Every structure is written in structure tokens, then in C-alpha cells.
Amino acid sequence: MSSGDTAIRRQKTEDRRQIVVWLRHGVFLSSVFCLLSSVFCCAAYAGQQEKLENLRQRIAAMQRELDKTSESKSEAADALRESERGISDSNRKLAELAAQQLVTDHTLNELQAQEQQLGNRLGEQQALLGKLLYQQYLGGKQEYLKLLLNNQDPNQIARDLQHYQYIARSRASWLNTLRNDLAALNAVSVATREQRAELASLRAEQSAQKKTLEKEQRARQQLLGKISQQLRLQRREINRLQRDENRLAQLVDKLTRMLARPKSGPLFRNDNLPDNRFDGSPFEQLKGKLALPVKGEVTNRFGAPRPESTVLWNGLFLRTSSGQAVKVIAAGRVVFSDWLRGFGNLLIVDHGKGYMSVYGNNETLYKQVGDVLRGGDTIASVGNSGGNEDSGLYFELRHESKPFDPMKWLATK
Description:
Blueprint: H1 3-149, H2 154-260, E1 268-270, E2 296-298, E3 316-319, E4 325-327, E5 332-340, E6 344-352, E7 355-365, E8 372-373, E9 378-382, E10 392-399, E11 402-404
Helix pairs in contact: 1-2
């Protein structure tokens, strides 16, 4: 063997060693990345969980403050109600006192008019009586002499003298009664004036009390307004904190699901493609003999939850480059070839006895409904239709419309 061949062999051996080192290094980096992702996720979960607990404690404290403020508002409202009741009572009493004073004033005016009339009459009668007494005083003796010297009947003279005396006594008695009536009227007038003064004093006192109550009412209304404003602010703050709590709880729940989600195993790399070796065999006999439609990495497991969702995968996603040929896994007939929301350009093949294969997210569909296929025929090209971020093929197997795990039907080598 020449020295040149030996050098080539050494180079190939070195290349293989480098490839092995690179592959191992890649696996190591992938493991480190997964580990770091898990650590960061755990740290984020712990931090967000602590924030959530602190937020809930703040909400509980705010709720206690809100309860105290509500109680204060209730007390202020009760005090305001008592003030308003007091003002209402004062207004009612003032109205009653005003009505009583009107009646008293009217009565006093009538009494004063009667007193004036009686006073006038008393003055007239006193003047008349004085004049009469004066005349009697001046001419009393002459009257007696005249009566005696008039040669009249003595009996008549006696009767006339008795008559004069009766008139004098009658006038004196009437004047006495008039004086008594005037004194009584004066007493009533004095009592009425005293009552009016007392009513005026009560009205003044009631008015002062009303002003005090109105001042208290204004102060309590202001206090109630401040408490109501404080309640609105506290409720608004609690609502904001509760919205923050909901968002944070959703994040913590999401992190919890992520941490609880079973760790994915190493990505499966498919390098085999279907062919027509098994054409003519019933599909149920192909378990353990099938190959996947394209070469690429299987990035999910059947039955695992989809990212950012609780929906489970009903099939496999094979990540590969756009434009790669998609092969049908076994002989069959095309029963669907069109665009479908969420699956993009979709093709479904019927393999008989209720077995179907599904191919989604294609760039181009080469077969139409009714086309008969042999195993390994090219039916489409890989793409990312249907709004998929990565290019690749979505693949399902179904029996009687129910999905089942394609990995269990693959040929093992």
C-alpha cells in the first residue's frame, strides 16, 4: 500500500472522528439547552408564584381596608340620617311655633283692642261720675232743702231721695265692675305678651339648633363624599389588582403546565421513504412495515399537548425543507385534495377498510380527488401553508375516522 493511500485513510478516519465529536457535541449542547430552559422555567415559575402570592396578600389587605371604609361609610350615612331627621324635626317645630305665634299675636291684638275700648269707656264713666259727685257735693244740701220746702208730699220727698241714692250706688257699682274687667283684661294681655315673648325665645333657640344641625349636616355630607370617593378608589384599585392577579395566575398556570409536561425524548429522524413493495396487501397487514412520507425530524409525539394549548396532537409533524417531495405511504385513492383551515393544502388518501392517511401544510398538491395511487407515489411538495411557522408535513393515520399513533406502524431497523 502506497504512502498516499495511507494518508487518505488517515484523513477519512480523522474526518469520521470529527463528525462523531461534532455529533456528540451537538447532543451535549442540545441537552445543555434543554437543561437551561428547564432551570429558567423553574426560576420563572418560582418568581411568578411569589409575585402572585404577594399580589393576593395585597388584594386581601385592600379588601380589609375596603370593608373598614364601607363600615365607616355606613356609620357616616347613619349620622347624616340622624342630622337630617333632626333638621326635619326642627323645621316642623319652627313651623308649629310660628303658627302658635300667629295665633298669639292675633289674640293679643284683639285683647289690646278690647282693653283700649274698656279704657275709653272707663275714662268716660269716671269723668261722668266725677261730675255727678261734684254736683252732688256742691248742691246736695240745696236739693234736700228744695225737696223739703216745695210743700210736696213727704213720702214723695223720701222716694226722690232714695232714687238719687240708687242712681249714685248703681253708677259706682258699674264703675267698679268696669275696673275689674279692665284689670282682668290687662292680666290676660300681660300673659299673652309673656307667651309671645316665650314663643319668640323658643323660635330663636330652635333656629339656633337648626343652624347647628345644618352645620353638622354639611360636615357629614362632606365626610360621606370623601368616604365614597375613597371607596371608589379602593374598588378601582382592587379591580386593577384582580386583573393583574388573573393575568399572573394564567402565567403561573401556563408555567405549571409547562413544568408538569413530560419531557420530550430525542427527536426522531426519519430517513426512509415509502415504496410500492406492499401494494396489493391489505392495509391492516402493514403495521410495522410503513415508512413516513418525507425525510425529516419528527418534532412531536402523538397524543402530546400542542404548544400554548391543551389540544393534543392527533398525528406527527415532520420538520423538513420546503419543496421536498411528499410520498404516499401505501396504495390507495385520493378522497380529498384542497385547502382546509388550520391544515393548509391538505390531501387525504383512502387505503380501504376504513384506513386513511392525512397529509397537511403542503406547498403544492399534485394529485386530485379520484386519483389512484401506488405506494411511494409523489402526491405533494412540502410547505408551510395554513399559517404554520415551520416548513414541514403534518401527517395522520386514521381508522374509522379515529386517529392512531403512526409511530407504532413504522418499520424498525
